[in-house]
Structure formats: C-alpha cells, structure tokens
Design brief:
Strand content of chain B: over 45%
Number of strands of chain A: 29
Structural class of chain A: mainly beta
Biased composition (Basic and acidic residues) (chain A): 239-253, 263-278
Number of helices of chain A: 5
Helix content of chain A: under 10%
Distance between the termini of chain B: 48 Å
Pfam family, one (chain A): DUF6801
Largest interface: A-B, 58 and 43 residues
Signal peptide (chain A): 1-37
Mean pLDDT of chain A: 79
Strand content of chain A: 35-45%
Number of helices of chain B: 1
Structural class of chain B: mainly beta
Biased composition (Low complexity) (chain A): 213-232
Region (Disordered) (chain A): 206-278
Oligomer: heterodimer
Order of helices and strands of chain B: HEEEEEEEEEEEEEEEE
Helix content of chain B: 10-25%
Low-confidence stretches of chain A: 1-37, 211-260
Chain lengths: 533, 210
C-alpha cells in the first residue's frame, strides 16, 4: 500500500517520461533514506567468479556483505548499508600485475546487482573503493572495497530479492614508495561462475506487511496506480514523515549515467575529423568526461564523454632560467559534436532549494576557441620534468529542457548563461575576458613513468567556476531566468574533467601487443576516459 | 619502494660505468676471437629496471624486450649478435615522458658488437650498433640512429646499455618544435637480462687472442 504525496499529483505527461525506469524500483543516488523496518539482517555471501586477466581467465572468490532491513513496507525506500565487496584474486593474477611493474594496487569495484520483485526487475550498480594494498609476494590478492549503494523501494507486496551479477574491477596500479608514480590501470571483468549458489542471491527482503497502514495518508491509492504500472521515479511515500520521503521518491538521478565505468564506444558520440574539419599534421582528437559540481544544488552534473579536436602546438624555448630548461607550447582545441563546437547534451537532476527536484538537459557551447598553454620545465640539477597546463575555454551553459517537480517547463530556445562560465585566471593580464580555466600538472622523475595530466596522454584537469546569471529562459511570458539564476548561478563550483589519450592523426598508434592503442582504425580516440570525483 | 630500489640500482650502474671509463683495467684487451656459448643460438632479453631514453627530455619505458640470434665470430670489433626484435613499451605499459606517451618503432636488425674482453671479470665491452628507431609523441616524430655503448657480463647475463651523448643522433624531426632538433643528442640507458631462448640459460661471450 502506498500513500500519495500531499502535493498535487504529477501530470501524466511527466509520468510517461519515467517509463524507462523499472516499474517498481527506485534507485536513488543522492538523497539519504531511512529504513523504518525494525530489524536488520546481516548478509554475507561467498560467490565463485571467473575473472578475465591479461594471462587468461582465472577463478576468483567474491564475498559480498551488507546489512538489509528484515522487511520493508511497500514503497518504502531503504539503502543496504555497510556494503563490502571483497575480491580474492589468485596468485596468477598477482603475477599479471607485478609484470606491469606494479607494487601496490587500489581497486574500484562495480558490482551489478539485479533487484527483482514478482515479475519486475531492475539493476543497480554497487560501487566500492579499496584502500591501496601492497601486492603480496606470494599467494592470492585480497581487495576489500566499500562504498555507498543506491537505495531501493519495492513498489508492491512481495519478496524483493538482490542478486550479484557481473563484477568489474578497476585496478589502479602503483608503487609503494612516495616518490614513485602510477604505472597504469587495468579493468578486470568478472562473471559469476555458473555453479554459483543461488545464482548469486545475496538477500531477500519481504515487502509489505502489517507494518504499513499509513493512517495519516491523505488519500488511498487507486488500484490502477498500485498495480505496478511503469512509474519509475514516482514510487510512493513511506508512512510517517511525508515530506522527506517525497524527496527521496523523486530522488535525483544525477549519477545514473554510470560514471565510473568507461562508456562503450556505441554510447559515445563519434570523434573524428571530416570534410568540414580536415586534419592537419598536428591534429589530435580525444574524449573528455567528468563532473561539474553545482554548489547551490549540492550536487554534481556528469558530463558524458565529449569529443575534442586539438591542434597540437610546437614547443618553443621559454624564458631563460638558471635552474630550468623551459619550453612553452600553445595548442588550440574545439569541442566537436554534430559539427558544432559544444558538448553532447547532458542531463542532471538536483534538488532545488532542498525540496523541488529539478531536471535539466544542458550543453556547454563554446563562444571562442579553447586555448591550451603547456609549460614544460626541466630541472637541470636532476632532470626532473614538470609540465603545467592551463586550458582556457569560453563556454556558455545552454539549458535545453527543464523539468521542475516532474513538470516540464518550456525554457525556450535561447536559455543560457549571460556570459561564459568564469574562473579566476592565474594570468588575467594576458588572458582577459570571461572563460573557464582548468589546470593540470604532469611530472616525471628520471627513470620513473610520467604521471598526472599531459595534453597528449590525458589525465585529470580541475578548476573552479562561477556560473553567471541565466538569460532568455522561458516562453509565453513565463520568465524562468530568475528561477535558474537563484537556484544555479553563483561561485565556487568545482569541476573535474578527465581527458583520455589523444590520437595523433598524422602519426596514429594503433593497439598492438607492442603498443598501447591511441587510435581506432578509423582514427578516433582509442581511449574513452572514466570520470573521477 | 621497489621502484626506488630499482632507480638506485640504475644510478649505481651508471656510476660504475663511468668509473669503468675513467679507469679501464689493464686486463681489458681487444680480442679477435669471440666465442659465444651456445653458438649459434636464439636469445631473448627483458629489461631489468626501467629503460631511460633521453631526447632533451627523459622518457621512461617500464617494459622493453629484445630478441635475436648470437654466434661466435672473429675480428675486432666482432659482431656477436643480431637483434631482430627490439620493443620499447608494450600494450598497457607505454613509454612515458612529460610530453606524453612515446611510441618507439625499432628498425632492425641492430647489432651487438664486442670490442674488449676482461677475462678476470668475464665482462665484454662494446656497443649496440646499427641502431635505428622511429619515435613519435603525438604529432612530434623523429628518427634516432647510431650506436649505444654497453657491457655484457657473463656471470649475470646483464647487457647494460649506457650510451654517451653523441653516439646517437636525431634525423628528420617533424612537429617537435625546439624540444627535439637535429642538434639533440639522444641517450639510451638501461639493463637487459639476456637468456638463451630455448633453455633460459645465461649465454656467455669470451674474447681471446690466439
């Protein structure tokens, strides 16, 4: 049984938009939820997996432990807690890692969890991260990953089951010493072994008992509404405090674009030079993806992998310095999406003013070229080299669609920030005007691999941005500028973007046993980077 | 930790080589008969510690492998081995620099040339000759040619390459700006463990003057 929110019912139009979400399950990302069930069941499942490593397929043992409520009310969201995923990889896998010159490893796990109730199903991704652990000299490697997982609400009565499925393990390899650097990373895909007990069943949570009976419910749900008709984020309230539960049911789906996992090539826009954009002999392309925090919304927008076309500059001698040999390089770049200098559209959902869910579809549009200044400094005493890179991009934020509280609002075609997103420029005299500044540093100690951000090989760029006021938002006399400005615009928004390895069109490096791939056969970037927080 | 140790080893090795140059033991003599055991035989070599290539900026390869054939020979200098495969970096472990990842494509064969032999230590001094490799980092491309000095130690099977500035030269630099020009003097330093491909045993080189 469910309670209907006291707020006005959402229009059917809004409801229809949510059908892509599973019928009865809400996977909530950001808003904490509380389980009202009295008891807790502690679950620990040990499951056999088969993992694909560079040396081949190897058996692995995966233990998943979590606390679930003993039971939950229909429509009551709860979050499995104390979730720990422990992966034990055999010694052969350790050899694969030490062969890559790794001395320690940090793991990020992505466990696909099937959630089912009656005939309805949904999928959640349970993410975890481990502390760095030293690779053992002998024997198996045990990785213990912990993390928050999405909350779940059973829409109707019946057992809600959680089953472990595919597991992906992102291994960041490194050496144990402080002066050493990251020798790379590796994603290991693992499948549940065919003989896994209970086909990976982790837990069963009975839903719907005598606990429910929300006497305070303002209205009784009609049979049609509670029959399991698709209504993704419209899960019902739990009994009790109505308002916070209403927040959770319409929880933001900010993180639903599966960040943390490299996107499939089919899921990213093409990134190649064409007749309108013929390459030169210094042309590069790369994908970039990441997060942009919106401070006022207390949330983050995920920017999906976006194509950037780059003209690599030629290094010139920098200013004389008694301690360093310096080279400066200026490169230029443009976003490239359907022949436009912009990102693909991306969606973000936030809780505006802490209670109204706002879902926006946006693009970042360039108003001028992106400029990339790299300064390489070689310290003459020990040949330690450092490259500092500043990316300056005039970008306006263009809002394409907006939904507030589930109701679509017509923002019109010209809804955007008044000016570019702006950052404090470290060199304002030479770089006036409004633009975003992202910074990255690459470093190399002689004899060790280079680390950090480098234009050619990519890495993480970060910056802080002020979002200007919005203009041109609304139609039919409805002015949405102030709503957006009040809820989004402001300073102190942190941005972190991860650029992938570039593909040099005139000197392409294709994947082979000898070479790390840089280009696909049709000269697109081989690497699709993974967003980082 | 492991890496720090390796790095120290590399430095120590370089220092030892420098010492060797400064004071060549009197027993190191040019030889005319070079006895390779086994001969002829296929060999392979894997880096021990990181390989450092320098072309103004240093580049680090954490993986490097070589393979070829070796055979006894006569004459001085003596060509005791041909390197037919020479890889720098591998899938998953590219060579890196602050410019970005560096891709090196070796044009083989390269030669292992023996010059002097010290009977008391079992160390052969010589060089890797006929070096030619195309190097790319993004749009920057250039070719390195020349030779690289080194030693081979029978007791350890370590081929230690420690080229000196001027042995290798840059030709045809394209889109590298001021970082790599024809005036650049590349270097190639690093250790390789050599084994007989069929047995895994350490091969030996002995020089003599009958």
């Amino acid at each position: 049984m469910k309670a209907t929110p006291a707020a006005a019912p959402r229009p059917s139009r809004a409801r229809a938009r949510t059908t892509s979400i599973a019928a009865f399950v809400v996977l909530a990302a950001l808003v904490p939820t509380t389980a009202t069930a009295s008891g807790t069941q502690e679950v620990e499942a040990e499951l056999p997996y088969v993992c694909t490593l560079p040396s081949g397929q190897l058996p692995a043992t995966v233990r998943v432990s979590a606390d679930f409520p003993e039971r939950a009310g229909a429509g009551e969201a709860f979050t499995p807690s104390d979730v720990t995923t422990t992966v034990e990889l055999p010694a052969e896998a350790v050899a694969d890692l030490t062969a890559r010159d790794a001395a320690e490893v940090r793991a990020a796990t992505r466990l696909t969890v099937g959630v089912a109730q009656n005939s309805a199903t949904a999928t959640a991704t349970w993410r975890g991260e481990s502390e760095p652990v030293a690779l053992p000299g002998s024997g198996p490697l045990t990785l213990v990953a912990r993390g928050e997982v999405p909350s779940v609400a059973g829409r109707s009565d019946g057992d809600l089951t959680f089953s472990a499925g595919a597991l992906a393990i992102d291994l960041a390899l490194g050496a144990a010493g402080p002066a050493t650097t990251d020798p790379g990373s590796l994603t290991v895909d693992c499948a549940l072994a065919e003989d896994a007990p209970g086909q990976g069943l982790l837990a069963t949570v009975p839903v719907g008992t005598d606990e429910q009976a929300p006497s305070g419910s303002p209205s009784s749900p009609g049979p049609a509404e509670s029959s399991g008709a698709p209504e993704g984020d419209g899960a019902p309230d739990a009994p009790g405090d109505r308002r916070p539960e209403r927040q959770s049911e319409r929880s933001p789906k900010v993180l639903e674009n599966t960040p943390g996992a490299a996107a499939d090539r089919d899921d990213v826009p093409p990134c190649r030079y064409d007749e309108q954009h013929p390459p030169t002999d210094v042309s590069l392309n790369a994908y970039i993806t990441g997060y942009a925090n919106v401070k006022k919304m207390k949330g983050a927008a995920y920017l999906p992998p976006s194509c950037v076309l780059i003209e690599q500059g030629l290094p010139v001698p920098g200013p004389p310095d008694p301690e360093y040999l310096i080279f400066d390089t200026v490169s230029y770049a443009n976003f490239h999406y359907r022949e436009r200098k912009q990102t693909p559209p991306f969606e973000a959902t936030f809780l505006s003013f802490d209670f109204a869910p706002v879902k926006a579809t946006m693009v970042l549009e360039q108003t001028g070229p992106m400029r990339i200044d790299s300064r390489m400094k070689i310290r003459l005493s020990d040949f330690t080299t450092i490259t500092d890179t500043y990316v300056r991009a005039p970008l306006v934020l263009h809002v394409l669609d907006l939904e507030v509280n589930g109701t679509p609002l017509d923002v019109g075609s010209g809804c955007r920030t008044e000016t570019s997103l702006t950052s404090a420029d470290p060199d304002p005299a030479n770089f006036p005007g409004d633009h975003l500044v992202l910074y990255g540093r690459g470093e190399q100690i002689v004899g060790l691999p280079a680390t950090g951000y480098l234009l050619l090989s990519g890495g993480a760029l970060s910056g802080e941005v002020t979002i200007p006021a919005f203009t041109g938002c609304g139609s039919d006399g409805e002015d949405l500028d102030r709503l957006l400005t009040a809820s989004v615009s402001g300073p102190g928004n942190y941005i972190k973007q991860v650029q992938g390895q570039t593909c040099a069109i005139a000197a392409p490096v294709f994947p082979s046993p000898e070479n790390e791939g840089q280009c696909t056969e049709d000269l697109q970037p081989y690497e699709i980077p993974v967003a980082e927080r | 930790m492991k890496k720090s140790i390796r790095r120290s080893a590399l430095v120590v090795c370089a220092a030892a080589s420098a010492l060797g140059l400064a004071a060549v033991p009197s027993s190191a003599v040019p030889s005319t008969v070079w006895t390779v055991s086994p001969s002829p035989a296929a060999f392979k070599a894997v880096n021990v510690g990181n390989i450092v290539l320098t072309a103004t900026i240093p580049m680090t390869c954490t993986t490097s492998t070589a393979a070829g054939t070796m055979a006894s020979t006569t004459g001085n200098p003596g060509d005791v081995a041909d390197i037919t495969t020479m890889n720098f970096g591998a899938s998953g472990s590219p060579c890196t620099s602050v410019l970005g990842n560096v891709t090196t494509t070796s044009i083989t064969p390269w030669d292992v040339i023996a010059v002097d032999y010290t009977a008391s230590t079992g160390v052969t001094k010589g060089y890797v000759g006929n070096v030619k490799a195309n190097v790319t980092a993004g749009a920057c491309k250039f070719t390195v040619t020349g030779q690289a000095s080194g030693t081979y130690t029978n007791s350890t099977g370590i081929l230690a390459i420690n080229s000196t500035a001027g042995e290798l030269t840059v030709t045809n630099p394209v889109n590298c700006g001021a970082v790599v020009t024809t005036a650049t003097k590349p270097t190639f330093k690093g250790n390789y463990a050599v084994t007989v491909a069929s047995t895994g045993a350490i091969p030996t080189i002995v020089g003599s003057n009958p």
